Amino acid sequence: MKTFSAVTTFVIAVATAGLLAQADLEPARFFDGSLPSMPPLAVSGGDVLVSLSVSAGGKVTAVDVLRSTPPFTDAIVQAVRGWVFMPALDAKRQPMDTHVLVDGVIGAPTIRVPTVGTPPTDVAPPDRRVPYPAQTTAPSYPINARTQGMVLVETRVNAAGEVVAVTAVRSMPPFDAPALDAARGWTFQPPTGPKAPPSTYAYLLFVFRQPVVGPSPGK
After folding, report:
1. pLDDT tens, residue by residue, 77-131
2. For the whole model, what pTM was predicted?
């Protein structure tokens, strides 16, 4: 029969305590904030990825741009600076500083016509403190829509980087259904580090641009 040494027992106890403390962490969650105003003359789509530093009081104290697509980046950064979150809680249920990912996906306004503009560019390495998109899906413009729309989707991401729940925290029918369907297909590289909770929230902002149908191919 095998016996454990005091050192082995201590190591197991520390590891178990660390896992339990991590499981007790509660991630920050969106509470309120305005959505960005899209540049009216933009004729392309884009992707803007930012990591928000959120204080123990729930306020955004810094915005780190990870992926940029002018002219949409400035509009999104300006909006998220004013967002308010329910603070993250540590193992003792005390508010703590944390980080939150926001990904703005802007649809192109044309069909069958090449768009012009600056393509998305990664301007910083992935932030390992937040879930980082690994596989993404862009929603389709709903056939019953007649205008532009914007939906902010809250995704719950588990420790494996899988989306396990989606909610439209800023809703605009009929765009909600395609936004939620798209969000369900995303996967993430999960956050790492001692303060990374076993599951967390990431926020996907889907911008639907009213399509302009160009001429059919060959015409």
Report:
1. 999 999 999 999 999 999 999 999 999 999 988 755 555 568 899 999 999 999 9
2. 0.85
| Distance (Å) of CA 215 to CA 21, 46, 112, 191 | 59, 23, 7, 45
Q: Is 183 helix (H, G, I), strand (E, B) or coil?
A: helix
Report the 3 state secondary structure along 3-58.
CCCHHHHHHHHHHHHHHHHHHHCECCEEEECCCCCCCCCCCCCEEEEEEEEECCCC
Nearest to 38 by CA among 117, 140, 126: 117
Cα-only R_g, the chain: 20
Could you please report the per-residue DSSP string of 64-117?
EEEEE-TTHHHHHHHHHTT-EEEPEE-TTS-EE-EEEEEEEEE--SEESS---S
The span from the CA of 94 to the CA of 96, in Å, is: 6
Two tokens, residue 201: 């929230």
Candidates 3.30.70.1400, 2.20.28.10, 3.90.79.10, 3.30.2420.10; correct CATH number of 6-213? 3.30.2420.10
10-residue mean pLDDT series, the chain (219 residues): 46 36 80 92 88 98 97 96 97 95 91 65 96 96 91 97 98 97 97 84 95 58
Identify the three-state secondary structure at position 127: coil
User: Do the beta carbons of residue 118 and residue 108 sit within 8 Å?
Assistant: no
What residue spans define the domains of the chain? 6-213
